[in-house]
Amino acid sequence: MYEELGKFGRIEALNICDNLGDHMIGMFSRYVPNGGGNDDPNNSSGNRGGGGRGGAIHLARIHGTEEDRVNCPFFFKIGACRHADRCSRLHHRPAFSPTILIKHIYRHPVREAELKAAEKLLLNKDKKDGSEGTGKSEDEKVDKKQAEENFLCFFEDMYEELGKFGRIEALNICDNLGDHMIGHVYAKFTDEEMAADALQIMNGRYYDGRKMEVEYSPVTDFREARCRDFDEHTCARGGFCNFMHIKPVPIPLIRSLDEDCEMERRREIDRQRERESRSRKRERRDGSSRRGGSSRSERGSGGSSRRRRDREVSSEHSSDEDNNYSDHEDGSKRRKRRSRSR
Fold first, then answer.
1. Which of 47, 10, 42, 11 is nearest to 29 (CA)?
2. Dihedral (Cα; 195, 197, 201, 202), 10-degree rounding
3. What is the dihedral of CA 84, 87, 92, 96, to 10 degrees?
4. Element containing residue 188 per DSSP (H, E)
């Protein structure tokens, strides 16, 4: 598609819809520079279809805002939309991002209490003692202290596990009750490669019996995503607000976890270096042993050959000495015989 459309001019963006609505499924749109202008030098206006030279600038300015009638502003700001795939606007899922989203992993205490109350209601209906029961569910009371303790334990687990992949700039857990945001965990790393490693390792793993569904999130500035009224304790929509209700975490706890994760990463780097040094030493030792074996064999063959040569030379020398000794004996005998004859 890109190659075919690129024949008509330079493409700034080629967007393909991931929506399932009948009016948008399989659609795509493209942005071209100069408000849709062509490359014809005879076209002095520099546009095509009356877009004007400020068309691309205008689209870039309104991208992700309420004025944008093509892209969903809530998905762009929050990474979630209450309409999901039925939204009438585009949901652009990034191919890479420093922020990852773990969907519905945090067990909200209010929702857990509602589930327990529903289970009790079903048990009351299934009783076979002849009493029909009231048919009303009693609201489960949420122990705030226990809920806060469970939340801090969950936060520590997430921070320590995600901190293995790199330094975390922000770890935000949503307190919303809407189905499209409940239990969401957003983790923003200092580098995109760290987020990519975390997504590759964490996606598909299990935590507390729940399978993790991890994806890249377009959210990079949580100031635009969070509900300011919730921070001031004045949000009238409660847990069903469309903006993030980020649960507060004590700053000393975050600093302590960050220091622990940094020390753990340094230990892991030291262990990795030690393993590499051991492997290099092992390779050098194996290489030296192989070279030593070959040199010993060469030395053995050379020694045997030298010993053979020495034996040959010694035998030759001994034979020469024997010959010289025999010649000397013959000469002495001849001299004795000459003296007798005289």
1. 11
2. -10
3. -10
4. strand 185-189
In the 8-state DSSP scheme, what is residue 161? Answer: H
3-state DSSP call for residue 173? strand
Count of C-beta atoms within a 10 Å radius of residue 151: 19
**155 contacts 87 by C-beta, under 8 angstroms:** no
Sign, Cα dihedral of 119, 125, 131, 134: positive
Can you tell me the distance from the alpha carbon of 319 to that of 329, in angstroms, rounded to the nearest whole number? 15
Quote the DSSP letter at residue 130: S
Which tokens sit at 223?
């100031």
* Alpha helical stretches, state H, 163-250: 192-202, 222-225, 228-231
pLDDT digits (tens, 9 = 90+) for 159-188: 999 999 999 999 999 999 999 999 999 999
Other Cβ atoms less than 10 A from the Cβ of 73: the count is: 17
- With residue 210 as reference, give the H or E element that holds it: strand 210-211
How close are the terminal C-alpha atoms of the chain, in Å? 129
Please give the structure tokens belonging to residue 256. 């302590």
Report pLDDT digits (tens) over 31-78: 544 444 444 444 444 444 444 445 777 767 776 676 777 888 888 888
Mean pLDDT of all residues belonging to the chain: 78
